[in-house]
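Chapter summary example.
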Amino acid sequence: MMDEKLKLPDHYEIEHELREQLSGRPGHQRCVVGHDELLLVLHEVPEVGIPEREAIFFWRRQDGRWLQPGGPGIDELESLLERYACAIDENEEILEETKSTEQVFKILRHAGPLSRSTRNIVQALEQGLAQEPDDKEIRELRDRARELERASELLQADARETLIYWQAEASEEHAKASGRLGDILFKLNLVAGFFLPLVALGGLFGMNLDLPDFVKGMFWWVFFGGLTVGGLLLWYISKDAWKKGD
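The structure predicted for these 246 residues follows.
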């Protein structure tokens, strides 16, 4: 059975109005608004293939002071955004150097959660600013989160376009290879057509039949005749093929 109370840092003594809006799980990234307090629920940098998210809580007290898991202030939120930036930069470096489709697909799997997570961070900070529009720290962090949102979207788009480009390149190479194979087969068929009459005549005269005496001495006539017929056939087929190529 799920625990009805969400585990918060021990030094967080949030008001009842905030506590009532929380369940036993942190849920999505958001700003929970109480009577006089705020609670930012943010997520750690997502990992590839892991759907669970580690929540980080930032509490704004009635007196306007921020508390974070490590104590007073909100510098851990800046560190969180820096970790997102590092994750995006690492993927961008890999994308620039890799030649592996599998690696690009892995980057895509990471870029999607990064994009969604940074977008939700921006929305959570916007919700906080709606309640405290004069909070300069949150405004600066909001702007930084917007930059990360944009960077993650570009990473996702670049990875997707890289896969599309490689697919088009592979299709083009396949088409060229098919064309070269077709040319080779055409030349082989021309060679086979050139010798076909000679083979046919050779097979005919090679049968165990009693041939007339005047035929027995015409070997070379038959040989060159077969080559001549084959040459004429080759010329006729090549002429039509060249006309179609033009």
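To summarize the output: The longest helix spans residues 136-205.
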